[in-house]
Amino acid sequence: MLLRRMADFQPELVTAARERVGASRAVYLAAHNRWQTLLRSRRAPKGLALYRAVLGPAETERPREWGDVTMTAHAWPLPGLWPWLRWEVLTGDDGAVANAWLVRAPDSPAPPLPGPDRLAPWSCVVGDVRGVHPDARYVEPDAPHRWLLDVPAGGRLYRLVFAHGLLQRVAQRHPAGG
Prior knowledge:
This protein has about 180 residues and is α+β, with helices and mostly antiparallel strands. It folds into three domains: about 1-45, no CATH class; about 55-110; about 115-175, no CATH class. It has five helices and eight strands; from the N terminus they run H-H-H-H-E-E-E-E-H-E-E-E-E. It has helices spanning about 1-5, 10-20, 25-40, 50-55, 125-130; strands at about 60-65, 70-75, 85-90, 95-105, 135-140, 145-155, 155-165, 165-175. The strands form two sheets. The chain has a four-stranded antiparallel β-sheet. Strands 5-6-7-8 form a four-stranded antiparallel β-sheet. It is globular, with a radius of gyration of 17 Å.
């Protein structure tokens, strides 16, 4: 499910990741189709119950501040692809999902990040960038699984594109004032 949206940006990385976990292209596409079917099914569980049905119990559940609201962050490990990341689902009291994305595992320190113009795809998550660039600005994305951050650095403004919270590319560069 995660890789399909990332293939829009980084098809070579997705192919390598798929091969690393031993999934053929047919298996990878079938998994994506099953997920899409579940999302649209009237009989499938909704909200957090859907993630629990697919992923099992969360490894951790903890309170998390999300703006002015305290939500619950449920996290699952991803040992085959990104052992240093977790799939995090933020829910309200009723189990409704407010956000689902990749975050850094609590025991995995954020890597030192180069300037935005030298960031490599899949090298960081939104939280890593926000930690180094607190002045980064969220931009309304063009798709629900994407995050866009405008990061000012060196007199320029860099647009970072994330799919499911993982950096895919640095899309635009222009003078910070214009």
